[in-house]
Amino acid sequence: MNTKEINVLVLAYLGDTIYENYVRKYLIINKGIANVDSLQKEAVKFVSAKSQASFLQEMIDADFFNAEELSVIKRARNYKTTSHPKNCDIITYKYATGLECLIGYLELEKQKERVDEIMSFILK
Fold first, then answer.
1. Rounded to whole angstroms, what are the CA distances from 49 to 1, 33, 87?
2. Any catalytic annotation for residue 89?
3. CATH number, residue 27
């Protein structure tokens, strides 16, 4: 299957699980957090739509992405949707979806090293 033909929300669905897995491992291994309540509170700092949108904008400002990656992000960001979580606006949600979509896309393209680079930037 051509990865570019997969619905961006499906790619974001996959990317969300990968992103959250990186964050959880980071908090357990690097931060040494061993309490589930504490893990949840810390994870929100990374996995909320507002945080994800902020990380994405920071990476865009740093010219972190290549043209193909920016294309995937823009495709997700421009996808027509009217639903979004109650705790954030539609623009923030679309930026967060763009980041998740890119991670899902890179995973299916077997570009794990690039996913590692993105997550290292975020978790720095």
1. 29, 22, 9
2. no
3. 1.10.1520.10
